[in-house]
């Protein structure tokens, strides 16, 4: 039967394609394992500082799955700015003054809900207590897109630049263009720099277009400088570009290039700082480029940080780019020694 013969041929072909078999069997297990550990610890417990509150208020907050700490007003302000607490509460003059972070929508809403419930539980003695909420970052009706949009921008730029650069460089190899270049009196590092400059010109336009569209068309909140957003996204695109070129050296077809996505791209979403991670996963988190891209974009777009605040993130992102460029130069040795 012709169908059976075709099926046998496909199975025989897959048997010799170890990479595809590994992707089909191991990659889903890797993804499920990551999701298990991440979502197991992602239900964070918000920490709220109390400066002054009625008797029983702290106990009511703790009963609502909130970690309560006692601080002075100065300590509370510093802790809130440092991200150590989600909110602080100060009851004075018949009003409950609540100041919340606002940059973490989920934790902020959980903390405010807990404060409301605690007020109801302790409300017998102070039924006239009025709550006044102020946001350190963002605002009351900010959407989830405003909170996580910065991370989405970084991932979209990283993903598409990686894919396009990797496939384009692969076509340069398979078409013989790279071989012709290697036969010319040109050094390996010059080839890598040339490709990065060529593709990099397009990534400048891409970074500007995606950032501009997100902020000025989709109305994504921007507190800081648009120029800094462009700088971060451009560096992110450069890292993705050099990373894509590096991965393409291990692929022999566009399909094999696509196989890298669930292995080296999707896991970076989980390690980009969007989820609460256990201690050992936080160590891995610090080794992926997208973590620093997301952190820098969030600091600028949500918290209005300047270049001095994100300098470390920018340095690490640049370091990744230089590292991948150096690695690409060495990997060209397998085609021809120059």
Within the largest sheet, what's the order of strands? Answer: 2-1-3-4-5
* Percentage of residues in strands: 5-15%
As a whole number of angstroms, the C-alpha radius of gyration is 25 Å
Number of strands: 5
Tell me, briefly, the overall form: elongated
Can you characterise this structure?
The chain has 338 residues and is an alpha/beta fold. It has two domains: 89 residues, no CATH class; 191 residues, no CATH class. It is built from 14 helices and five strands. A five-stranded mixed beta sheet has the order 2-1-3-4-5, sandwiched between helices. Helix 6 packs antiparallel against helix 8, helix 9 runs parallel beside helix 14 and helix 13 packs antiparallel against helix 14. It is elongated. The model has no long low-confidence stretch (mean pLDDT 80).
């Amino acid at each position: 039967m012709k169908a059976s013969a075709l099926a046998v041929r496909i199975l025989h072909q897959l048997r010799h394609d170890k990479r595809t078999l590994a992707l089909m069997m191991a990659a889903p297990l890797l993804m499920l394992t990551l999701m298990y550990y991440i979502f197991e610890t992602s239900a964070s417990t918000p920490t709220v500082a109390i400066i002054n509150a009625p008797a029983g208020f702290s106990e009511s907050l703790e009963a609502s799955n909130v970690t309560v700490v006692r601080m002075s007003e100065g300590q509370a302000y510093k802790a809130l700015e440092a991200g150590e607490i989600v909110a602080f509460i100060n009851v004075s003059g018949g009003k409950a003054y609540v100041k919340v972070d606002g940059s973490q929508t989920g934790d902020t809403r959980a903390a405010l809900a807990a404060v409301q419930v605690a007020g109801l539980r302790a409300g017998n003695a102070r039924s006239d207590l009025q709550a006044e909420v102020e946001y350190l970052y963002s605002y009351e009706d900010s959407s989830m897109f405003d909170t996580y949009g910065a991370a989405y921008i970084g991932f979209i730029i990283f993903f598409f630049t990686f894919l396009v650069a990797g496939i384009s460089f692969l076509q340069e190899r398979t078409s013989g263009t790279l071989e012709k270049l290697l036969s010319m009196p040109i050094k390996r590092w010059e080839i890598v720099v040339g490709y990065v400059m060529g593709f990099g010109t397009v990534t400048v336009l891409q970074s500007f277009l995606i950032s501009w569209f997100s902020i000025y068309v989709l109305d994504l909140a921007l507190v800081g400088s648009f120029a800094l957003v462009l700088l971060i996204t451009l560096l992110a695109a450069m890292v993705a570009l050099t990373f894509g070129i590096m991965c393409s050296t291990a692929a022999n077809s566009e399909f094999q290039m696509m196989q890298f996505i669930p292995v080296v791209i999707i896991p970076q979403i989980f390690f980009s700082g969007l989820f609460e991670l256990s201690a050992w996963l936080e160590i891995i988190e610090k080794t992926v480029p997208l973590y620093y891209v997301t952190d820098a974009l969030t600091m600028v777009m949500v918290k209005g940080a300047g270049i001095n605040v994100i300098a470390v993130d920018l340095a690490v992102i640049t370091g990744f780019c230089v590292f991948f460029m150096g690695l690409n130069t060495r990997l060209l040795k397998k085609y021809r020694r120059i």
